[in-house]
Amino acid sequence: MMDEQRRDPAAKPVQADQENPIVSFFGGATQRLKEGLPFGQLAKLVPADQLTRWFSVSEDQIAAILETVRQELPTTEALLIGKPQAGKSSIVRGLTGVSADIVGQGFKPHTQHTERYAYPSADLPLLIFTDTVGLGDVNQDTQALINELVGDLKQESGCARILVLTVKITDFATDTLRQIAQQLRQRFPSIPCLLAITCLHEVYPVDAADHPGYPPRFEAVGRAAAAIEENFKGICDRTVLLDFTLEEDGYTPVFYGLEALRDSLADLLPEAEANAIHRLLDERTEASQQLGSLYRDVGRRYISAFAVIAATLAAVPLPFATMPMLTTLQVSMVGLLGTLYGQPLSPSQAGGVVSAIAGGFVAQAVGRELIKFLPGFGSLIAASWAAAYTWSLGEGACVYFGDLMGGKKPDPKKIQATMQTAFKSAQERFKGIQSN
Q1: Do 9 and 123 lie in a common domain?
Q2: Is the peptide bond before 212 cis (omega within 30 degrees of 0)?
Q3: Does a structural domain hold residue 303?
Q4: Under a CB-based contact definition with an 8 Å cutoff, are residues 54 and 21 in contact?
């Protein structure tokens, strides 16, 4: 679907954009401006309501694009079942690599007894975590929770699923958890179940200053783990020992047992889903680049249309008359890209992002407007510049939002470098505007 754009970031827009009247309108508009037709007369050739449609983004088209990409993703849903403080959020951190704060903010209410977190975003998720809340509370209605989980699992989702039972190594009051797991396995025997025994360091010997080699050979760990595993015998397909801590806790590695978790998931999940998670864990840099490319391919569908609109506006041969309109257009584009990356923004917030990432391009924007005083082709040069700048701004916004989505602080130098490269590439693409 997106092979062409992967080969060439500045390739022609995809079919959805090719059918948009913006492209044909722009070609005719620039030619008529070169022939001396005033822009006011040009605008009269097109009904106002049609212009409004052209200069907006169809919500239906956005939904269609996202749905097409979503169907191609090897998505996995992990149902995390365990008491609070049993390490469920730590497992999410280990699998995604995002910070504890991002994980905490990511979970949203799903049903009365569950919360859900889609990584990296709800629109295009690779991993979906469903977390049970309030388990272990004496006032919790266990059967109501089971009914909710059963209802959720009965719905066809199209993604692989796995039950992950999390138990602290010091917790032996697990009758409720066992009851839930037993009923779910009886109803859905094809969904694999993984028992994750967590917080191992709580039973380390007093003289143990760090994690031992994996698996841990401490007697206290082995004895407690064996007792918990025996309690879930016949329910779980595999057991893994984990100790996912924070950096300030002083244990190395922070994600102790992550490789064992990866291997267990690879054994229990279908091949496509297991391979996707394997890449997330073993090749974080490459996987991050692949994920960023996936989102950017979709983003470029929007960026290309906005670049064409910007060029049409910039062709108006009146210095500074179109700058407010161009700014509004570019802010709208950034806002739309933010929504795509799971970072919805208000118009003022989107404007702040534009200001933050535009850098030295602002001065060049003023220079672009002054070019319009040149006789003849000044407006056409400005149109080409506006298209290339809008494209580069969109690419920079994708990097910005991609960093936020991955739980990282955006790097201004990386964003500026991306914009410079994208600007030069887009100039080559749009230079034909000057010579048509």
Answers
A1: no
A2: no
A3: yes
A4: yes
Please say whether the beta carbons of 252 and 210 come within 8 A.
yes
User: Strand 114-119 relative to strand 127-132: parallel, antiparallel, unpaired?
Assistant: antiparallel
Over the stretch 47-90, which tens digit does the pLDDT of each residue have? Answer: 444 444 444 445 665 566 566 666 666 788 999 999 988 999 99
CA distance 54 to 86: 52
Single out the residue in 212, 247, 282 at which a domain terminates.
Answer: 282
- Three-state secondary-structure class, residue 364: helix
The number of distinct structural domains making up the chain is 2
CA 273, CA 74: separation in Å to the nearest integer? 5
DSSP one-letter string for 127-180: EEEEEE-STT-TT--HHHHHHHHHHHHHS--SSEEEEEEEEETT----HHHHHH
- Quick: pLDDT tens for 147-161: 888 988 888 777 889
**Phi, psi for 319 (deg, rounded to 5):** -55, 130
Instruction: Examine the fold and report which residue of 282, 317, 335 is the final residue of a domain before the chain moves on.
Output: 282
Q: What is the CATH number of the domain that holds 230?
A: 3.40.50.300
Residues 297 and 242 both lie in one domain:
no
Could you tell me the residue range of the domain that residue 175 belongs to? Answer: 75-282
Distance CA 356, CA 362 (A): 11
